[in-house]
Amino acid sequence: MKVYKYQTEQVLPIPLEKAWDFFSSPVNLKEITPDYLGFKITSDLGNGKMYPGQIITYVVKPLAGIPMRWATEITHVKDHEYFVDEQRFGPYAMWHHQHWFKETDKGVHMTDIVHYAVPFGFIGRIANTLVVENKLTEIFDYRYKKVETLFS
Known about the structure:
By secondary structure, the protein is of the alpha+beta class. 26% of the residues lie in helices and 41% in strands.
C-alpha cells in the first residue's frame, strides 16, 4: 500500500480563538465543502464541539454523484493547537488528517496535513494519479478560497 501526503497552508487575519471555534466545529464542514460533493453529516453532533473519540458519519458524492458513506473518528485534540481525524470506513484505504493552528503576528497560520492511501493496489495508484490527487487539490483549493472569503 502506497501512502501519499497532501499538505496545504493558509494564513487568516483573525484571532486564534475565532479560527479554532470555526474549524473545531464539525457543523462548519459543509460550509467549506464544494456543493457538488453533496456533503451531509448523518451523525448527532451533540453540542457541536469535537472531542477525542467522537465518531462523525457523512454521506458524500465524490464521483459521478454516487453517494458514499464515510465515518471518521476525532482521535486527538489539543485545544487551540491541533486536531486529527482518521477514517474508520469510507472511500480510502487510509485517511489521517492533521489540522494545525498557530497564532502569528499576521493572524492564524493553519496547516492541513493529509496522509492517505487509495485501495485496489496498482489500479488505486493509477486512480490517484489520474483522479484522486486532482480531486483533493480541487477540494482544498475550494476550501482555501471559501475560508478567505469568510474571514478576510
